[in-house]
Amino acid sequence: MPWSSIGVANYSVRYLKELLLHVSVVPSVNQIKCHPSLPQQDVVDFCHQMGIHIIAYSAFGSTGGPHFAAPPIVALAEKKHSTPAKVLLSWHSTRGSSVLVRSNNLSRIKDNCELINLDEDDCALIRVYSNDLCKKGLFRRYVYPPFGIDLGFPDAAM
Ligand SMILES: NC(=O)c1ccc[n+]([C@@H]2O[C@H](COP(=O)([O-])OP(=O)(O)OC[C@H]3O[C@@H](n4cnc5c(N)ncnc54)[C@H](OP(=O)(O)O)[C@@H]3O)[C@@H](O)[C@H]2O)c1
C-alpha cells in the first residue's frame, strides 16, 4: 500500500523545491531546528505556502538552554510573569508551528504543554533580535550535527 502522508526533517527551501519536483505526495510536516537565533523564516513561509506544517526542534537551543538568557526572552518572561521556556515555546504557536521539546523532568514536561499569549508587539521584540543577529551574521544552531553536505541553511554549510 503506498504511503498517503510523509514527513521530512531538516529540509531547507532549496531541498524542498527539489523534492517537490519528484514526489506525488507533498510532505505533511517538515521538522527543522528553529529558535530566535535561527528563525528559518524562509522555510516557515515556504512551508505555509505549500501546506506543510512546521515542527520546530531545539526551541531552547538544546542542552543548557542558551536562549533562556537572550535579552528579549528575559524581558518578555518578566513582562508576562512567566518563564523564558514558555516564551520560547509560545513564540512558535504565533508562527503556526508546533514544537518538539525534550525534557527528562516530569513537572517540566507537564509545564511545557501550557503556552502563554504573545501579541504582535511581543513577537516584534523577538523579530528585531533575530534580524539583528542576521545582520551581524550571527545566526547559529548551537548543536552542529555532521550533515556532510550543504543542506542550504543560513548558519551552517556542512
Ligand atoms: N530531526 C532532527 O534532526 C532533530 C535533531 C535534534 C533534535 N531533534 C528532536 O528535538 C527534540 C528537542 O530538541 P533538543 O534535544 O535539541 O533540545 P531542547 O528541547 O531545545 O532542549 C532540551 C533541554 O532543555 C531542558 N528543558 C526542557 N524543558 C525545560 C523547562 N521548562 N525549563 C528549563 N529547561 C528545560 C532539558 O532539560 P531537562 O531534561 O533537565 O528538563 C534539556 O536539557 C529532541 O528530543 C529530538 O526529538 C530532532
From TrEMBL:
Q: What is this protein called?
A: H/ACA snoRNP pseudouridylase subunit
Query: Could you tell me which residue ranges the NADP-dependent oxidoreductase domain spans?
Result: 5-126
SUPFAM superfamilies, per database record: NAD(P)-linked oxidoreductase
- MF terms per GO, please? oxidoreductase activity
Q: Which organism is it from?
A: Penicillium argentinense
Mind listing the UniProt keywords for this protein, alphabetically? Oxidoreductase
Pfam families assigned to the protein according to its UniProt record, in alphabetical order: Aldo_ket_red (PF00248)
Q: What is the superkingdom listed in this entry's lineage?
A: Eukaryota
